[in-house]
User: Fold Putative hydroxypyruvate isomerase from Podiceps cristatus.
Amino acid sequence: RIHLMAGRVPLGTDRAAVAGEMEATFIENLRYAADLLAQEGMIGLVEPINNRITDPRYFLNTPQQAAAILEKVGQPNLKLQLDLFHCQIMDGNLSRNLETYFPLIGHIQIAQVPGRHEPDSPGELNFPYIFELLESLGYTGYVGCEYAPKGDTREGLGWLRSYWESRGLQHGGTSK
Assistant:
């Protein structure tokens, strides 16, 4: 799996004025990439990145926009990389978005909102609920941790050990 980035609106340019051209270019590039990736048995991922905090110039900002583009491209080896941090900032409604876009999802990334720290840090998202929802939907892929640990990496993964223990699992996710 590889993240295929959408690009940024040029400096000093009105987003609305270039949106059509940027979308057409992105679609053309995605079709080209999908063909190359198919030869290698790879999946391409498109990730909406919020333009409110993280990157005001990034072209692809919502799962709705990503889904529409993926539909226009029409290649089965292109999927949605849904970063819940970005999705919450742009749209909220994570349960509905996960359910709606689940067939398109090829990878999930997580970070707490607003601080972009560990899932058990103070914030807006209820990760035990989100993980249960993903499990109920049948998600079997990886969950990428794209957050800035408040301390060191090992300490920053303490939430995962606690989560496994709450589910009756030992370190590493194996049953007791």
